[in-house]
Amino acid sequence: MEIYKNIDALHLKLAANIQEFEGGAGLPTSYSDRLAEEINLLLHGCGLFDLKSSWLIALKGAEAGTFLQGMVTSDVLKLEIGQMQSSLICANKGKILHHLEIIRSLENEWIVSCDPGEGRAVGTILDNFHVREELEMRLLNSGEMLRLDLIGPAAEKILLKLGYSPEKADWKFEAGAVISLKSNLGKLPRLINLVDINVIQNFIKLVLNNANVDLTGLEAFDEIRISAGIPRFGVDYSSGNFPQEAGLADHISYNKGCYIGQEPHARMYHRGHPNWVLVWLKLPEDSAANSGDALFHNAKEIGKITSLAGIPERGNLRGIAMIRHELAEGKNLFALAEDSQPIIQHEALPNTIV
Q: Could you tell me if 309 and 321 are in contact, meaning their C-beta atoms sit under 8 angstroms apart?
């Protein structure tokens, strides 16, 4: 689509690396020599994170909510109009297939925001399970809306200047519609915006006209989310994991009734625990750790680092690791080799299922 090329041209002016996904939508992953500047923007100003590569699938109709309720792990029927909830699609045996963010946009309409590269597979699953329910599905990216996130303490102030009102998620920008939803990235304010394709270029232009605002990419986003203890699908956990292993307490409901994968989740929650679990790491900034490195306890390998931030905080680096469940309990210290000193601390992720 021409709009994709026009937006990507802004990234390319900053020497961006762009990962292209289905349909030609690009995700800016990093920029040349700008990481520290991007992180400073996110922490003290505002970063515009282009997520047009996230497919937006709208389900509309009298039975759209009940259909989606049976497909995903969260309780979508509890969402009020203008609210959003992170969720998962799981397989029959309970393991994760896809990570989602679900928005209730109207009384009988929900929008599923898919992770970049996951949209076609999610759409296929929803289409295959839709048999008789009274609903229609459409892809908003094909001509209606694209996703842009504003992250940082100045994010809401910038949107207010464009016409946004915190009291209502949907609003008008010029001749187009925008849906803006608050969803903090750890402690940082974040506003997820679904913007009318017809006005999105001017929307971006006016956002970037503000002081202390600029484009930011996935690399900077990862630094922030790792520091906040937020795992990412495809990096810290995958389709080989259960939600309980990934620490996704805010993605799953144990009270709403049946959905795909519900029975294994309920059994594990009420009767046991997973063999593995994600934890939040703190390690000295001068350590030689890298993402993917094994972790050891009493000379035995007990897991591995899945994500590691590169910018230190008060002399420490933050990371995320998948380790044996029994080692996650207590104050065990971990090492980077069988015979090295244990120097790595850990704690539960903020949303670990307990």
A: no
Bridge partners of 191, per DSSP, are 150, 182
For residue 169 the two structure tokens come to 């998620």
pTM for the model stands at 0.94
**Six-digit token string for 131:** 């048999």
Judging by beta carbons within 10 Å of its beta carbon (0-12, 13-18, 19+), is residue 171 exposed, middle or buried? middle
Task: Quote the strand ranges of 205-254, DSSP E.
Answer: 213-216
Mean pLDDT split into 10-residue runs, the chain, 354 residues: 94 96 92 94 98 98 97 96 96 95 97 97 96 95 97 98 95 97 95 98 98 98 96 96 87 89 85 87 93 96 96 92 92 93 93 52
Helix or strand run (H / E) with residue 114: strand 109-114
Rounded Cα–Cα distance for residues 159 and 142 (Å): 25
Domains in the chain, ordered, with CATH? 2-53+142-227 (3.30.1360.120), 56-141 (3.30.70.1400), 243-348 (2.40.30.160)
Contact 352, 249 (CB under 8 A): yes
Residue 22 class from Cβ within 10 Å (0-12 exposed, 13-18 middle, 19+ buried)? Answer: middle
Residue type, 79: L
79: tokens are: 């969402």
Written as one letter, the residue type at 132 is R
- Please state at what angle helix 155-162 crosses helix 200-208, rounded to 10 degrees: 120
